[in-house]
Amino acid sequence: MRIEADLNKCDGLGMCEAMAPDFFEVGDEGTVVVLDGNPGEEHRTDLAAAVDACPVLALRLVS
Fold first, then answer.
1. Strand ranges (DSSP E) for the chain?
2. Dihedral over Cα of 43, 10, 17, 37: its sign
3. What is the pTM of this model?
4. Which residues fall within 8 angstroms of residue 23, CB to CB, at 6 or more apart?
5. What b/e sequence results for 16-45 when a residue is b if at least 16 CB atoms lie within 10 Å of its CB, and e otherwise?
6. Closest of 12, 31, 24, 11 to residue 50, by C-alpha
7. Percent of the chain, pLDDT > 90?
8. Which residues, 6 or more positions from 57, have their beta carbon under 8 angstroms from its beta carbon?
9. For 59, what's the count of Cα atoms within 13 Å in the CB-facing half-sphere?
10. What share of the chain is helix, strand, coil (3-state, %, to 5)?
11. CA triplet 24, 28, 31: central angle to 5 degrees?
């Protein structure tokens, strides 16, 4: 599984960071930084919830 972030869409609202702080943070530029771009399958449920929480649809999980 891979996490992809579209930095052109990201508004830096931090919903992903709030839901999965081990995988996302809002960086100094005001956009998401993916901390672990290739997480294990055991994190899929938490990451899917964080991706779904993004109000601007800037994140996606790729199998």
1. 2-5, 24-26, 32-34, 59-62
2. positive
3. 0.92
4. 3, 16, 34, 35, 36, 39, 43, 47, 50
5. bbebbeebbebeeeebbebeeeebeeebee
6. 24
7. 98
8. 9
9. 29
10. 30, 20, 50
11. 50
